[in-house]
Amino acid sequence: MRILKYLFLLLLLSLVTLSVFVATQKGKFTVEKSLVINSPKSAIYNYVNDAKNWKEWNSLAVEDSLMQIDYSQNTIGSGSSFSWDGKEGNGDLQTLYVKENDSISQKMNFNGNNATISIHFKDTIGGTKVSWKAKGEMGFMFKVLTSFNGGAKKIFELMFEKSLANLDRKLDYEINTYSIKVDGIVNKTKSHYLAQTFTCEFSKVSKNSGIVFTKITNFCNNNNLTISGKPFVIYHTYDTSKELTKLSICIPIKDSIHISEGSDITSKTLDAFQALKTTLKGDYSHNKKALDKATQYLREKHLISDAAFSHLEIYTIGKSQINNPSKWVTEIYYPLQQKAVAKPVVTVPKPAIISPVTEEEPSEF
Questions:
Q1: Pairing with 176, which of 71, 111, 113, 262 sits 20 to 30 Å away (CA)?
Q2: pTM for the whole thing?
Q3: How far apart are CA 201 and CA 208, in angstroms?
Q4: Are 86 and 63 in contact (CB under 8 A)?
């Protein structure tokens, strides 16, 4: 009985000692890891900025196929958020603000521990340097867990290393796998559509398109309008020197409608036209290569673009249908001037001049 008492006291003393040890450990931590990824900065930024892609590269989700993830209605940029419940615990992540193609700031709660997250993207030799930093404070139970696993810094460093490696592998294939095909001259049929028109920088087209496509789609749903095709963008002007474009972000509808004045959404009709079609299969970051290939074809074939607008892009398969950039399909159309068709020359014979018939005089012979 006395032995049991001593064992109990020893166990109690050990627990007290452990508690004191854990309690005196630093609760705050700072972890930062970087990796150069062989993909364009804008492509990496857009991929990481979409919360729905988190499960494709973050090691917590990659290593837990049964993890349950719930997303907010908006998954891109400031205000987007999601929560998860997995074998390593539960948590949530919220994007506080973003700087286009530069950085993302977030707030994370993981098993009751809070941390601020910052991800920076910088062009460098060999690709894009992605720097991921976390600053946080641990609760008591997390201190206990980390004490037996090398500390919080070691745990987070390992998670960051695995996640960045996953991101590199994922994007190396998904972003850099693409194909471009010049399909030739086609006839585009007349179509009705809803649109919002504005001017913006090239780098912001993708972000703005996603926002406006959702806005117009909701407008259609709220007003029982039938969407009759894939979303598209009309580039009215395309200034490569200033990287500035005036564009209309469009959703095709079955019938033309009247919208009251004052709305930023307009109802328009695109008349039938002849165009040079080019198809890009892959991430939108290769769009410039597709445009260059199309314009080269125009020059080689001595085709003249119509000045009605610069070009049109139809997003046949995009991120709303599939999460793999390598499988996205964008159709590009350059409007062409209609060649004047020479009318056949019809030669009308002049009427024959017929002399009046006279009675032949009698011959002397």
A1: 71
A2: 0.74
A3: 10
A4: no
